[in-house]
Amino acid sequence: MSWLALLQNLEAGTVRAATQDENGDWHANVDVKKGILDVFKNGTNIEFPGGFVDKDNLAVRGFSAEDGVRMVPGGSSVRPGAYVASGTIIMPPAYVNIGAYIDSGTMVDSHALVGSCAQVGKNVHLSAAVQLGGVLEPVGASPVVIEDDAFIGAGCVIVEGVVVKKGAVLAPGVRLSATIPVYDCVNERQLERGEAIPEYAIVVPGSRPASSEWGRNQGLNMSCALIVKYRDEQSNASLALEEVLR
Length: 246
Known about the structure:
With 246 residues, the protein is of the alpha/beta class. 13% of the residues lie in helices and 29% in strands. The two termini are 35 Å apart.
C-alpha cells in the first residue's frame, strides 16, 4: 500500500494503528506504523500559510458539516492520517496526531492531546489538558488505548502503551505509565506491570513511600494510582454524557 493510500485508509477508519484480538488484548499494527514513517520519509518541508513549516504531504485536515465533526474554532489541529468519527467534538486548542483513532460521540476538550496512533473509543470524555502519549518508534510498541465509555479527568497523563478498559474513570491528575504502579484497593491487589486498567474502575492519584531506605528516611513519596471503587448507578448518573452536545 502506498503512503497516500495509507493516509486515506487511516482517515476513513478502514485500517488502524492497533487492533484488538478475540481476547480483548490490543496489538500494534506494525505495517501501518511503518507506513506512517514512510509518509514522513516521502515528504518535503514547505512553508504553509501562517508561518508554519511541515512536510508537504501533511497539510492540516479540514472538515465539512457533512462529516458530523464539531471542530470548534480557536486553534485546534487534526493531522492527516487521523480518524475522527461523526459525533466527535474537538474544543480549542486541541491536537490530534497522525495515526490516531477517535470513535463516535467522543469529546476532546481544550488543551487535550491525542498522540500519534492513540486509539480512543466511543463516547469517551477527554477532559481539559488530558495527554495521551503517541508512539511511532519503535514500530512494535503498542499505543495508548482508551476504550468505549471511559471518562478521563482533567490533567490526566497516559503514556507508554497503557490501556484503559471500557467504562473506566480516571480522576483529575492521574498519571499512568508502564512503570507507575496501580493498586486495586477493592480487590486488594497490585496490577501486574502492563496490565490494563480494568473495566469500570474508578482511579484516583495516590502516592507510596520511596523504595530506597534513604528516600523513606527523608519522608519521600512516589507517584502511584489507586482503584478506589468500581462504577455503580450513582457514579454512572454523575458521568452521563449530554446527547444534545453531540
